[in-house]
Amino acid sequence: MSCSQPAGFYSASSDAYTGCTGTLRATSVSHIHEEKEVALAFKEVVEKSFLNLIDVFVSSDGSSISMGDKWLDTITDALKNCSVEIIACSPISVQRPWIQFEGGAGWVRGIPVVPLCHSGVKPFHPPGSI
User: Fold this and answer.
1) CA–CA separation, 117 and 38 (whole Å)
2) DSSP per-residue codes, 67-99
3) Is there a domain that residue 55 lies in?
4) What range does the domain containing 31 cover?
5) What is the pLDDT of residue 5?
6) Per-run averaged pLDDT (10 residues), the chain, 130 residues
7) pLDDT of residue 123
């Protein structure tokens, strides 16, 4: 890589990086409604850490889905266009069909699907089939 961006800005997937002067592509955080605070905290950390160069989609943040938007279409677009999908994994969330569905969407697209383990779930050993 010839630009001066830190190595962490570049992914093995070349489409996850838009260039030295552009912003990184979107990240989608899949979560269950009861655990929206986890998704919101993750979004805040990522946006602050990367100086808002990463667009983080969180369906329950009050801004990713605008009033009047067709929510399912907006979520579908986010899943189609993100370059990384984060799945908030708790003992409860990994049992929910919607979390499994969204994780599968990322897997089918061949993008990184990263578990964000919390509430006792350990990395590399999430319960369920995630």
Assistant:
1) 10
2) TTS-HHHHHHHHHHH-SEEEEEE-TTGGGSHHH
3) yes
4) 23-117
5) 36
6) 36 40 70 93 93 90 92 92 93 91 92 92 65
7) 80
Give me 12's structure tokens. 């093995």
According to DSSP, the residues that pair with 115 across neighbouring strands are: 87
The letter for the amino acid at 63 is S
CATH of the domain at 57: 3.40.50.10140
- 129 in a domain, yes or no? no
Residue 43 lies in a domain: yes
The 3-state DSSP class for residue 56 equals: strand
Percent of the chain with pLDDT over 70: 75
Distance CA 59, CA 89 (A): 16
Q: Using DSSP, state whether 24 is helix, strand or coil.
A: strand
Evaluate whether residue 34 is within a structural domain: yes
Q: For the chain, what is the domain count?
A: 1
Residue-level pLDDT at 2: 35
Coil, helix or strand for 25?
strand
Q: Which of 46, 43, 68, 44 is nearest to 57 (CA)?
A: 43
Backbone angles phi, psi at 102, to 5 degrees: -65, -40
